Amino acid sequence: MIIGRLLGYLCLAFALLVTGADLLRILEIRQVDLLSLAELWALVGESSLMSLEDLVVSGRFPGVWQDVILPFLAIPATIFFIVLGVLFLFSCRKRYLA
After folding, report:
1. Are residues 1 and 31 in the same domain?
2. What is the pLDDT of residue 95?
3. Phi, psi for residue 62 in degrees, rounded to 5
4. What pLDDT is attached to residue 94?
5. Are residues 52 and 80 in the same domain?
6. What's the CA gap between 90 and 36, in Å, rounded?
7. Which range of residues forms the domain containing residue 67?
8. Quick one: which H or E segment has residue 18?
9. Which of 14, 39, 65, 68 has the fewest CB atoms lying closer than 10 Å?
10. CA triplet 49, 84, 2: central angle to 5 degrees?
């Protein structure tokens, strides 16, 4: 339970970092363009993203990349990490019995 709360706080902290990066991008290009999960993953390690794409496309169901994974990777990273952090915190909260 402690690990889940720690992961929740870590996800929320990472959401704040990504929000700061988004705000800097907005100030720099003067246009709202939120950082997606795919862009964030490409910044961290583009080769792993490409190898995952090759693995999925060459697998048994090649349409999964286009129909499932790409729309998921188009989600703004800030929203993803906020939702993930809140889910971790909510599911691993301390429960008090009445």
Report:
1. yes
2. 80
3. -70, -20
4. 82
5. no
6. 24
7. 41-75
8. helix 2-29
9. 68
10. 115
Would you give the end-to-end CA distance of the chain in angstroms? 20
Write down the pTM of the prediction: 0.86
Reported as a single tens digit per residue, the pLDDT across 28-60 is 999 998 999 999 999 998 899 899 999 999 988
Are residue 49 and residue 25 in the same domain, yes or no? no
Contacts of residue 87, defined as CB under 8 A and 6 or more positions apart, other chains included, come to 8
What are φ and ψ of residue 32, in 5° steps? Answer: -80, 110
The pLDDT value recorded for residue 1 is 84
Q: Is 59 found in the same domain as 82?
A: no
Closest CA relative to residue 90, chosen from 26, 25, 1: 1
* 98 is a domain residue: no
